Amino acid sequence: MKFLQWSVLPLLSILASFLVLYMKTSSKPSNSDCSLLPHDHYWIYSKLIVTPEGIINGAVEVKGGSIVSVVKQEYQLGKVKEGHVLDYGEAVLMPGLIDVHSHLDEPGRAEWEGFFSGTKAAAAGGLTTLIDMPLNSAPSTVSEETLKLKVDAAQEKLYVDVGFWGGLVPDNAFNKSSLEGLLRAGVLGLKSFMCPSGINDFPMTNSSHIKEALHILAKYKRPILIHAEIELDSVSPVEPNDGIDDVRSYSTYLKTRPPSMEEAAIRELVNLVQDTTVGGSAEGAHLHIVHLSDARASLDLIKGARTSGASITVETCPHYLAFSSEQIPDGDTRFKCAPPIRDAENKQILWEALMEGHIDMLSSDHSPSVPELKLLDKGDFLKAWGGISSLQFVLPVTWSYGRQYGVTLNQLSSWWSERPAKLAGQGLKGAIVSGNHADLVVWEPETEFELDENHSIYHKHPNITAYMGTKLSGKVLATFVRGNLVYSKGKHAPAACGVPILAK
Ligand SMILES: *[C@@H]1O[C@H](CO)[C@@H](O)[C@H](O)[C@H]1NC(C)=O
Ligand SMILES: *[C@@H]1O[C@H](CO)[C@@H](O)[C@H](O)[C@H]1NC(C)=O
Ligand SMILES: *[C@@H]1O[C@H](CO)[C@@H](O)[C@H](O)[C@H]1NC(C)=O
Ligand SMILES: *[C@@H]1O[C@H](CO)[C@@H](O)[C@H](O)[C@H]1NC(C)=O
Ligand SMILES: [Zn+2]
Question: pLDDT band for position 223 (50/70/90)?
């Protein structure tokens, strides 16, 4: 009897641990792993809740992943006090940020970023939805099949919700069934380049390709997004070591991508959407210009077209609003991106255009690579990979650099949530109103921090960011995705329960 007990017990415990292991690997995360909160019906209190009607002092009631009521303190607080309450006091409660321009690079280049690290960084930064770009993964998202590879690769790796843009390339542009297949499979719109993209399986498109896509997109009521730069004959490429220009000097790079490249591309696009004989706005198509850098002639063209009724929106990125070309140190290729960061006066005009509503929204254009491709040791601006890592910091960066221009919380929310939601066709996201997804961020605008190597950064390559060493204001305390508390005070939920967003 005794003998039996001694020999059976270890056996049982081994069996039990196999069972636990089996359950861990074979079962989907349980609801409690998705959230740092134990319940799914609760109230979030804040004295500064950013709603479309303005800032209120009150509570947001969350149930089953949605916002079920938004109440002002004066007349309702007594009633809500009984349930589960998270009281954030003076911290701001805003809609979660929606980034319409992230490169998550998976499948195929997960060593550059990946769904897991990218969305983990997003959650820590108060972003609740990302729209992934069709290039820098391998293969690019240019067909129904390649979209499926994306969605499969994203399974159980998403801390926030992720939608996908499809790629418009010469290969699918004239093939209606291919483009429609991609749209029916769920991409939220199409993206193309008017200059080489730097990725071999993502060649550039010309105006004929874009025209074809506009016709089809109008039918699906989804936008086309364009990287608007055209290579001009008048701009002679600078060859490295040609004895005249120093490849380590930022001004050398700047000369290779002048504002006239953006202007030429935008002129072509504006003509395209205004030509009523070829579709475009007249048919209900919408054009979105990504990462505008040139605040002068290019922006004037966009303003003009909008005045005459063209359906065009435009985004710019925090790095064009935070940095200027004059400040970029020699050889510091962390600042390389395309179009390039321009002079201080250009930055000032971009801010003014944003404040006046001529620029609609912001996006990160988070576009990392493996550190080796940034060529930090050589500092060669012409050969280094172009792309700035920033996903986790876009909220404090926009806020910190915008304060001198008088940026308000409602503007932040419009640029980062409301308008991006509209562009991506996400009617249940982007605003704190009853019925919407409970996608929320709580943050402290006044808390300052210096971004150094001791700060928890969740991007795959944390120290390759142009923001390292900057002093920022605005600390994210908590992030909710469809009611799940996915990030709180430096901790992430045990499981990644964001979902892929596919258009229907
Ligand atoms: C169009 O794309 C489909 C795949 O969606 C492919 O089967 C077909 O061969 C393509 N047609 C042409 C003319 O390239
Ligand atoms: C665009 O490229 C296609 C080839 O893919 C060509 O047939 C077409 O003429 C070009 N359009 C323009 C405006 O250059
Ligand atoms: C990071 O933390 C370490 C250990 O606390 C400290 O020695 C170092 O100075 C910190 N680095 C910065 C940039 O503050
Ligand atoms: C990034 O961090 C790693 C590990 O701490 C370090 O070895 C590397 O030199 C850093 N790179 C840069 C560009 O700071
Ligand atoms: Zn990009």
Answer: very high
- How many angstroms separate the CA atoms of 467 and 388, rounded? 9
Is 100:223 a contact under the CB 8 Å cutoff? no
Q: Could you tell me which of 460, 463, 423 has the C-alpha nearest to residue 189?
A: 423
Mean pLDDT for the stretch of residues 439-450:
97
Q: 107 φ, ψ to 5°?
A: -80, 170
Residues near ligand 1 (Cβ within 6 A): 175, 177-178, 181
Given a contact cutoff of 8 angstroms between Cβ atoms, the answer to whether 316 and 291 are in contact is: yes
Q: E strands, 349-483, where?
A: 361-362, 440-450, 471-481
Helical residues (DSSP H) of 357-495, grouped into ranges: 394-402, 409-413, 419-423
Q: Beta 440-450 vs 92-95: how paired, if at all?
A: antiparallel
Predicted pLDDT of residue 73: 81
Query: Which ligand has the minimum distance to the alpha carbon of residue 181?
Result: 1
Does the C-beta of 170 come closer than 6 Å to ligand 2? yes
Instruction: Give me ligand 4 centre to Cα 241, in Å.
Output: 28
Q: Pocket of ligand 2, candidates 206, 214, 267: which has the most ligand atoms within 8 Å of its Cβ, to mutate?
A: 206
Average pLDDT in the chain: 91
**Measured from the CB, is residue 463 less than 6 Å from ligand 4?**
yes
**What is d(CA 294, CA 314) in angstroms, rounded to the nearest whole number?**
12
Domain 96-428+460-472 CATH class label: alpha beta
Closest by CA position to 390, among listed 379, 401, 381, 380: 401
Please tell me the distance between residue 454's alpha carbon and the centre of ligand 3 in angstroms: 6
**Span of 73-77, 222-226, 272-276 with lowest mean pLDDT:** 73-77
Domain ranges of the chain: 96-428+460-472
Ligand nearest to the CA of 179: 1
**pLDDT of 273:** 87
106/13 Cα distance (integer angstroms): 40
pLDDT in tens, 313-343: 999 999 999 999 999 999 999 999 999 999 9
Q: What pLDDT, in 10s, does the model give residues 302-312?
A: 999 999 989 99
pLDDT tens for each residue of 268-298: 999 998 875 555 555 778 999 999 999 999 9
Q: Is 153 in the pocket of ligand 4 (CB under 6 A)?
A: no
Residues, beta carbon < 5 Å, ion ligand 5: 365, 367
